[in-house]
Amino acid sequence: xxxxxxxxxxxxxxxxxxxxxxxxxxWIAALLxxxxxxxxxxxxxxPDYKAVVDALFTLGLSGxxxxxxxxxxxxxxxxxxxxxxxxxxxxxxxxxxxxxxVLWAAALLVAWWFADPVLxxxxxxxxxxxxxxxxxxxxxxxxxxxxxSLSCEFFYLCLPLALPLLxxxxxxxxxxxxVALPLLILALWPAQHLVPEASRWWFTQIFPxxxxxxxxxxxxxxxxxRRGLWRGPGxxxxxxxxxxxxxxxxxxxxxxxWATLLAVAYLLVITAAADADLxxxxxxxxxxxxxxxxxxxxxxxxVHVLVMTTVLRWTGDxxxxxxxxxxxxxxxxxxxxxxxxxxxxxxFVETPMMRLLAPRRPARPAVVPRQxxxxxxxxxxxxxxxxxxxxxxxxxxxxxxxxxxxxxxxxTYAR
Length: 415
Known about the structure:
Blueprint: E1 2-3, H1 20-40, H2 47-57, H3 63-78, H4 85-113, H5 120-127, H6 148-152, H7 155-168, H8 171-191, H9 200-206, H10 208-226, E2 232-233, H11 235-251, H12 255-279, H13 288-295, H14 297-315, H15 326-357, H16 379-383
Helix pairs in contact: 1-2, 1-3, 1-12, 1-13, 1-14, 3-10, 3-12, 4-7, 4-14, 4-15, 8-10, 8-12, 10-12, 11-12, 14-15
């Protein structure tokens, strides 16, 4: 069903409202990235089985795109007027850096075990999350491969500077940006011919200012929804649009087009899921298991490639694949092992470090969604107000995958 009304007919939407559906969706995006990497590592040797994985996850790398759009949406949605820039930046560091540091050290340990050469300059770039700015082939994927997306997130530094401008922007300008940003993403493909051929992948897929376009797309949409001005399809219609876009992009659309189309499709799903939570409408992404999976998805994202490559190299199966049913079984085993490790990392590193390092905020009261006449809604409204946090340290976010927290006790992620 398509929603033709703004989020609130009477007043702008409150940023205190909780959005657990966005956390559940984060797990879906993390799963897409996992499936893409499982396919590119050629773990499954049986052609028929591999064809299924390729069909399902051929565009799975775009899950990072979802994380970037979602981060922009959540951070603008949850921003408070009284927060200082220093407070914001401190929360971002507390959220991202402890997990990154653990995986950076683990990747160096694995490199030492296999006697892999490690350039000190590359290790330092990774430690400081600067590798995405380095176009040299291999450098931006060095050490823990997936941390390139954390290095892209310089927009965390930019948001406190840009937020006052966003708050003052007139609606026509915001809607213009919603249209213009996907077109800029599209324009990057001819623009890549302005850089050396060896750097074109880096320019279109890694370069932080380029990837920030997705973040700002989510940020602008959040500002429109915060003011009660967003109009878009409901969750069912947005999901149908996304699936149709995914199938068309995987089968018939060239690479320079699908990145733009999927950015728009992801935005429609994110805004529709947020609107469903605000209105207390049904959402399949709000269940407790999915919310938990979303909470650990940042840790899952950081560990999954390192775990799979390390095990495959240790067993001697790197690049050979597993025949018959063993291929899918190995992929499922990796999924479970990575989930266990992600849960441990979330529980014993991410959460306590957020408690220790992030500045605290007073707890916000739960917001009960209301009908247009102002009366509280029923069970679906109560379901819409559980399991999510209100600010950027307690709500669904990127750094590149993550979840939601309760009163600062559980932290979230954030491509």
